[in-house]
Amino acid sequence: MRYCCVIGCSNAKAKTDCRDKTFFKFPLKNSQLLQPWLKNIGRQGFRPFSSSVVCPDHLQENSYTTCQFTKRRLLKREAVPIIVSKTPKQIPKVGLTSAAADGNNMQPDGTKQ
Ligand SMILES: [Zn+2]
């Protein structure tokens, strides 16, 4: 089974919902292009094999061209995958700090004289 190499992504080619997706191989022969690929998949020290793939979830719509003969979507030569975070952003909880600051307690003093 081929898994998507992007960090945090669990898409695999054998999965039912990925069956009609085209997975893309790394541009192993193009070291200039390979660098941003490796950077963008988010795995440190990762070395792609010839069988390593990235699922199309990480490629933007403008990364493709359509082959005029087969009508299949082809990846543009300069296209680079991006990390798509599927986990929802966590909203940091703001703790309630005590708004009543001491030291400013005005006490009416009506007992004097
Ligand atoms: Zn993926």
UniProtKB/TrEMBL annotation:
Keywords: DNA-binding, Metal-binding, Zinc, Zinc-finger. It comes from the Eukaryota. InterPro entries: THAP_domain_protein (IPR052224), THAP_Znf (IPR006612). Residues 104-113 have a biased composition (Polar residues). Pfam families: THAP. The keyword Metal-binding applies. GO terms for molecular function: DNA binding; zinc ion binding. This is THAP-type domain-containing protein. It comes from Araneus ventricosus.
